[in-house]
Specification:
The chain is built from twelve helices and nine strands. The chain is of the alpha/beta class and 319 residues long. The protein binds NADP nicotinamide-adenine-dinucleotide phosphate (NAP).
Length: 319
């Protein structure tokens, strides 16, 4: 038998991440059976129609019964409530993991409800899009992306190895780190950039009322890229900021200091400071492309065929 295979995998939450996992699990033949649970009837129906799961339940405790791998794929603020419900139904020997974008708070919310004999190994796939819901998922989402596992003290080595192989079979490379380190790294690489995007698009929306839609009409590449990020799932991102407060505030402090340095450089015509930074940041982007985490194509490979200079407001295909 394929040692990566689980008899029954249960996914709690069937949105972008849950549905992508269903596709990836099926592609690699990793489960004898997939069960799922989602809050709304609409999502449950869609997951059956799309063939994501073999059975779907309103009650997450029914979905996890007899599962040997349980994956929480809900916004991080929903984990504790779900754990209260599923805890008595978890099978001894099962692996319990999650996909939440913050880790320390998830551990604080989930660990107290993990029964003896269940292996809780927190996780986070660094893969996503600005879409959400069961129809947004696709099998390739995790291909070539990192998945981070943050095992706790005393984690069973065999369970960790099995979960690692699971993510690898879903297409990911796997990295192990502590929950605290994860939260610091993600604060600067993901959470603060999202906050900046939400903020800049919010400011532009306010200005738009003054400039009468010119912000949208003449939206330049830089701003458009921020709007894509700022279109991300509002509930998910609210929960991320409320649950990674310390690391986000720490990184925002650093960010504000560095922004003040740039303000001063502009005010005092200090071109050397600007040039030095812009050269360094260009190298960082080259490094990300060389690491295979971004496309080298100009303008993120967008097709320019549909846009003409005379019609700058015409919408483009979403990349
Ligand atoms: P999503 O598309 O919005 O799906 C969330 C799922 O959770 C839906 O099935 C939803 O049910 C269910 N749900 C929401 N609130 C719930 C509640 N209070 N109780 C029970 N179920 C609830 O979100 P997602 O993008 O898949 O994100 C899931 C997790 O993955 C989050 O923790 C997020 O931090 C993490 N993550 C996301 C990304 C990304 O880019 N999106 C990347 C990596 C990790 P209904 O559909 O019935 O409302």
């Amino acid at each position: 038998m394929n040692s990566t295979k689980f008899e029954k995998i249960a996914l709690i939450g069937l949105g972008l991440i849950g549905s992508s996992l269903c596709h990836a699990i099926k592609r690699a033949g990793l489960a004898g059976q997939i069960t799922g649970s989602a809050r709304s009837e609409a999502t449950r129906q869609a997951s059956l129609q799309l063939g994501l799961v073999d059975a779907v339940f309103a009650d997450p405790a029914e979905a996890v019964a007899d599962a040997d791998l349980v994956i929480l794929c809900v916004p991080v603020g929903a984990n504790e409530q779900i754990m209260k419900v599923i805890s008595p139904a978890l099978k001894a020997g099962a692996i319990l993991t999650d996909t939440g974008s913050v880790k320390s708070e998830v551990v604080r919310h989930v660990e107290p409800y993990v029964p003896d004999g269940v292996h809780f190994i927190p996780g986070h796939p660094i893969a996503g899009t600005e879409e959400s819901g069961p129809k947004a998922g696709f099998a390739e989402l995790f291909d070539g992306r990192w998945s981070i596992l943050t095992p706790l003290y005393g984690t069973d080595e065999a369970a960790l190895e099995k979960l690692k192989r699971f993510w690898q079979a879903c297409g990911s490379d796997v990295e192990i780190m502590s929950p605290e380190h994860h939260d610091l790294v993600l604060a600067i690489t993901s959470h603060v950039p999202h906050l900046i995007a939400y903020n800049i698009v919010g400011t532009a929306a306010d200005i738009e009322q003054v400039t009468r839609s010119e912000v949208i009409k003449f939206s330049a590449a830089g701003f458009r890229d921020f709007t894509r990020i700022a279109a991300s799932n509002p509930v998910m991102w609210r929960d991320i900021f409320l649950n990674n407060k310390e690391a986000v505030l720490e990184m925002l402090g650093r960010f504000s200091e560095d922004l003040a340095t740039l303000q001063r450089a502009i005010r005092w015509d200090d071109g050397d400071t600007l040039l030095e930074l812009f050269t360094r940041t260009r190298d960082i982007r080259r490094g990300i492309i060389e690491a295979g985490q971004e496309t080298p194509e100009p303008d993120f490979g967008r097709s320019h065929g549909t846009l003409t200079a005379a019609d700058p407001a015409k919408p483009r295909e979403k990349s």
